[in-house]
Amino acid sequence: MKHLLVSGHRGCAGCCDAMATKFTLMGAGEDCIVVSPTGCLEVMTTPFPETSWNVPWIHSLFENAAAVASGIEAALKAMGKKGNTKVVAIGGDGATMDIGLQAISGAFERGHDFTYVCIDNEAYMNTGVQRSSGTPFNASTTTSPAGKVSFGNQRPKKNMPAIIAAHGSPYVATTSLAYGKDMIAKVKKATETPGPTYVHCHAPCTTGWGFDTSKTVEVARMAVKTGLWPLFEMENGEITKVRKIGTPSPVEDYLKMQSRFKHLFSKEGGAEEIAKIQAIADKNIEQYGL
Amino acid sequence: MVTQLIKGNTAVIIGALYAGCDCYFGYPITPASEILHEASFYFPMLGRKFVQAESEEAAINMVYGGASAGHRVMTASSGPGISLKQEGISYLAGAELPCVIVDIMRAGPGLGNIGPEQADYNQIVKGGGHGNYKNIVLAPNSVQEMCDLTIKAFELSFKYRNPAVVLADGVLGQMVEPLKFPTNAVQPQVDTSWAVAATSQTRQNLITSIFLDFEQLEDFNNRLQKKYELIEHQEVAYEKYMMEDADIILVSYGISSRICRSAVEQARNKGIKVGLFRPITLFPFPAKELFKLAQTGDSTFICVEMSNGQMREDVLLATRCMRPVELVNRLGGNLITFDQVMQKIEEIAKGGST
């Protein structure tokens, strides 16, 4: 199989972006045009004149990947060249859930035939681990530092798949880079579904979350096994498929793997905070029938 | 007095805290992010407000809101982020709101890279957003000035009810030098004389930039221009170094001026009469002083800046093209080298290029 994102890029050892992008391209296939907003993925794969991409690729500024993708899709249609060519935007959580949300909303509302893939590593990693609206409750980041008073980020993670579903998207899915086949299949389905579709990938960042570079997949898998990251598919607003997790692992097993949560195990009152995170997982398990 | 080795970006927040800044609104971008980090750490600790916005536009409009309510507010970013903020900056200037904006310039255009440049000169000094407005612009060249000029920016911004920008670059933001901490701290206080602070006493105040009547808007614009003239008259700041008998005058601001200082000393050792003229305020630009220098001697000016000569255009205007104005520059994130400046000085000293 031809590699569409080749080795030799400048990602960290154990980089989540590299893995998630490989799976994305395996799902989308060779006949695709990729749009990447600013972020680690863009910086590490395209230091001019080098590139890791074996598909047409365009960089956009941080806030406008979905607008650029809209333009490409419209132009392909105008030229009568859309055919089976897939237009795929791949953005991080900051580009997707914060600064880029307006452009994404516009593109989904207009109904462009494209797929947006969010590689969610739960903070602004490229600029130095600042919180985003994808940062989970109680995680320490450089702008939500845990300290004497604070347990870190005090807001729940934004429910981005629900926002996209509310736009009437025909296909919305969550996935995890711990489940490569799952991600490849979901991206394939998303790109083959006409209209604006969305795949949200949970992607642990070794640098930003603080775990050994060999553990990316294990950390990702544990997020799913605890129920903190449910894997599901939604078609036309209805959940049609859920990945069952069997007996869930306690959230401690996930939290203790990462230094962004280490204050929960050393600070007074940590146990109560961990219980709040367990409640988030329990709610997911119930809500999605995990 | 406390002295500490500190990063330029950190010094900005030290200055802001001493200046009584009570609300920080920001968004991450390299090489300015440490300002955001430090604000997130210190502001809540001191009972002040820190908000990380979801975008640059949101951050500058939070500044608009906070400033309207009379608070001492600030934000910081770098080139691409400042470009996104421009609409908000125009609104702040139009509503005559005081605030401080810090721009840690990086190389452009477009995404460019995260190396240092001084190419936001035009977008900051000349306005950048729409309309006939100006920012007060201060250009530090050391970690000490990153702190001191942030304080000065708050002072001037409130004195004139006008946005003030601290225009620095990636080197100044990232480099570490000793900082003498300020000795006086301003207590955060809401200015109720013009603000709309949700109190009965501020009920009559109005913050707006909407003038649907053409005559009214023209009057307002003219009044703004009078304010800018007053600022030009009262607030020009610059530094002269070995200028008394200088035949060759280096004009440089920010980090480039530090390289120039070394070049002046080296050239003097070689018997070449070189001086350094460093604008500290870029608006108001020290145009009168430069004009005087152009009139009084047969000197040659060399502008040294990390842009395509954006400040040089203002030097040409100020000197009314009476004397040659050369340019030494680097672009793309590269620093100007000492050798590059020396080479130009020696070339001119030999009468090679005018």
General description of the model:
The complex is a heterodimer of chains A (290) and B (354). Chain A is of the alpha/beta class and 290 residues long. Chain A is built from 12 helices and 8 strands. An 8-stranded mixed β-sheet of chain A has the order 2-1-3-4-6-5-7-8, with helices on both faces. In chain A, helix 1 (16-28) packs across helix 7 and helix 3 (65-78) runs parallel beside helix 5 (101-110). Chain B contains 12 helices and 14 strands. The longest helix of chain B is centred in the middle third of the chain and has 21 residues, at 214-234. The mean pLDDT of chain B is 96. In chain B, helix 2 (33-45) links the parallel strand 2 (23-26) and strand 3 (49-52). The interface between A and B is medium-sized, with 23 and 19 residues.
Q: Helical percent range of chain A?
A: 25-40%
Strands ordered across the widest β-sheet of chain B: 3-2-4-5-7-6-12
Q: Identify the quaternary structure here.
A: heterodimer
| Structural class label of chain A | alpha/beta
Total number of strands of chain A: 8
Shape call of chain B: globular
Fraction of residues in helix of chain B: 40-55%
Largest sheet of chain A: 8 strands, mixed
Percent strand of chain B equals 15-25%
Radius of gyration of CA atoms of chain A, rounded to a whole number = 18 Å
**Secondary-structure element string of chain A:** HEHEHEHHEHEHEHHEEHHH
Distance between the termini of chain A: 34 Å
Low-confidence stretches of chain A: none
Strand element count of chain B: 14
Protein chain pair with the most extensive contact, residues per chain: A-B, 23 and 19 residues
What is the strand and helix layout of this fold?
The complex is a heterodimer of chains A (290) and B (354).
Chain A: H1 16-28, E1 32-37, H2 40-45, E2 57-60, H3 65-78, E3 86-92, H4 93-98, H5 101-110, E4 115-120, H6 160-165, E5 171-176, H7 180-192, E6 197-202, H8 206-209, H9 216-226, E7 232-235, E8 238-242, H10 251-255, H11 263-266, H12 270-288
Parallel strand pairs in A: 1-2, 1-3, 3-4, 4-6, 5-6
Antiparallel strand pairs in A: 5-7, 7-8
Chain B: E1 3-7, H1 8-18, E2 23-26, H2 33-45, E3 49-52, H3 56-68, E4 73-77, H4 79-94, E5 99-105, H5 121-125, E6 136-138, H6 143-160, E7 163-169, H7 170-174, E8 176-180, H8 214-234, E9 238-241, E10 248-251, H9 254-269, E11 274-279, E12 281-283, H10 287-296, E13 300-305, H11 310-318, E14 325-329, H12 338-349
Parallel strand pairs in B: 2-3, 2-4, 4-5, 5-7, 6-7, 10-11, 10-13, 13-14
Antiparallel strand pairs in B: 1-8, 6-12, 9-11
